[in-house]
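Below is how a single chain appears once it has passed through the pipeline. First comes the sequence as given, then the structure the pipeline wrote out for it. We keep one example in the README because the format questions we get most often are answered faster by looking than by reading.
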Amino acid sequence: MNGQPTQSAPASTGEPPHPWGGWPVVRPVPAWRVWVWGLAYWLILAPLTWSPRMSGNVFSRYMTIEAIVERGTLAIERSPLLRRSGSPDIVRFHGHFYSDKPPVLPAIACPIYAALVFVGGIRFSGPVEQFLLSNFALTWGVVGLASSLTLVALRAMLRGVAIPPRAADLATVAFGLASPLLTYAVTFNNHSVAAGCVAGAWAFMLTEGSRKAGRMRFASGLLAGLAATVDLPVGALTVAGLAMVQLIRSRSGVWIYLAGAFGPLALHSGLQSLVTGTPLPAEMYPTAFEYPGSFWTSPGGVWKETGPRWLFGLDFLVGRQGAFTVFPAFWFGLVGLIGAMVSKGRSERWSASIVAGSLAVLVWYYVWGVRRTDFAGTSFGVRHMLPITPMVYLFGVVALGRTRRWSVVAVGLFIAAMTVGGVYAVKGMINPWSRAETRAETDPLLRAVQRGALFQGGTFRVDFIAPQPNPGGGGR
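Resulting structure:
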């Protein structure tokens, strides 16, 4: 680390003046260097993805994909996967059963599954080999690709941080291998896709130049809108935050940005209305979860508040599988955000303020805004914070780039934090749908790093959700 500030004049790079809120490119690198790490990561994920990591969450989305492609409907009551999945993530509207997940992500995956079905005759309901191939194609082709593009976006943004290019490369690779991005890159989920969309939307905004400003604004809006359709809390914050930046830059530019966001949001509205009758997600209709055979009306599914929410907040952030525990580099990101917000660089200050504000709102929402505190189920770590993690990490690298006298100590602490994060990332990748504190009981290495958790309570742990029979006898 050379101790230079993260913002400097872009004149020496030959780049056009950057717009308000953007970051000038202070460490230009060839385009291939931005993309190569994402491509390498995607290839690495291929063998890691072959073994299915299944849960009710995954099955719920797979049943929607199958229903759209094979039967032309979002209703899943005729799915062969329904009885064997045991998924509790099912709702009933107008006499039909549906996944309770937003439908845009399954719709995005449909072309891949349609190619398998209509070209190769491969189906989820076929022999086990066909299920394995279907799972691999969808997970690697959608989630793995989105995770890889997260690294591309991160490396593109690191061109605006005054650290050596090799250090930026290492920081990019480290995030891919030692963060929750790896844990969830091997299972079909929405948070990994949202991470790629959020990072991509920010990358287009921060690196926007005058040469292709219109296209970059549209792309930023498209990705932010898509993030809102697959992960509403962080996506909505991203749409709003970047819209504010675009509005300050140009009144005409914000309309281009919003035009990009309109497509995914319109698609969501249309598909969701086929389920709930409105664009509102299924969670807004509690009675849809109440039907004969529903897990959520069983003794194990009826919610009972188990403690004060502030205590859950400690568990959520610094508990044995809290956000700061499984990814200790979050602390560096927090320091970087605070430092950037009080810095003299206007563009850095405002981007940090938006990320910090989004982070604060997300924490408040998941701790106090959600009706239940068991929304993470049996998943490893706090996957709901994954979409904002790349941006927080970016400011952690910014903080390292600003260190001078204590740079060796800071870098040493950062390496130690990423090493611990790597243990959690790899252990989580093995089985993303098992909680860290439960796994630690039989895993000595995981038990050792768990001792570093600042809060050892575990009051809110969820050990197991039992498979449920076909709800309502099929719902026909």
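The longest strand covers residues 90-93.

See the next section for the split statistics.
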